[in-house]
Design brief:
By secondary structure, this protein is of the alpha+beta class. It has one domain: Immunoglobulin-like (Sandwich). The protein is built from four helices and eleven strands. The protein has an eleven-stranded antiparallel sheet. Strand 5 and strand 6 form a beta hairpin. Helix 3 packs antiparallel against helix 4. The N terminus is likely disordered.
């Protein structure tokens, strides 16, 4: 038995890390917070969803738009300015953004959230950003009070991209 325990620990350590996944007919959830909708009307949306972020009206999502991933963020108040600061594991970048509209949110106390699409220069820039967050630990979005924990994001983003095709 004493030999078996170190062997099992070594074997588990050598296995590739995979996100914890819970799945049903309506959705797939990675690491308890990355929610992939299976509803065709939802455009393959993958949302980073926590109770705390929902309560303050802060959202981060990736959905399919014209067969390609589209990165979206939402805020409790309308933003001024055309670009958005993003910090991925301490490295700051800016991305142009465009207002996508106001949405009634029954989970947010104030009712409405204001959505924005990140407008990357091209598909390569978008894909580089998605690859970067897939291998990172934390994303901070300018204007949001709570960070996005990227645990489980790599597999969730990979599967969401396949959904867009």
């Amino acid at each position: 038995m004493r030999i078996l325990i170190p062997f099992l620990l070594a074997t588990l350590a050598a296995l590739p890390l995979r996100a914890e996944i819970v799945e049903n007919d309506a959705m797939k959830v990675f690491e308890g917070k990355w929610v992939q909708s299976k509803d065709p009307s939802q455009n393959g949306i993958l949302m980073y969803l926590t109770q705390e972020r929902s309560e303050v009206g802060e959202y981060f999502s990736i959905r399919c738009d014209a067969g390609a991933p589209s990165v979206r963020v939402a805020f409790p108040k309308r933003r001024s300015g055309k670009d958005l600061g993003l910090i991925v594991d301490g490295t700051e970048m800016r991305a142009p953004s465009s207002f996508t509209g106001r949405t009634k949110d029954p989970h947010f106390v104030r009712g409405n959230i204001f959505g924005y699409k990140l407008d990357f220069a091209d598909a390569a820039a978008r894909d580089a950003f998605l690859t970067r967050i897939g291998s990172a630990r934390m994303l901070t979005i300018e204007g949001q009070t709570l960070p996005v924990d990227l645990t489980g994001a790599q597999q969730a983003i990979r599967e969401q991209a396949a959904y867009c095709r």
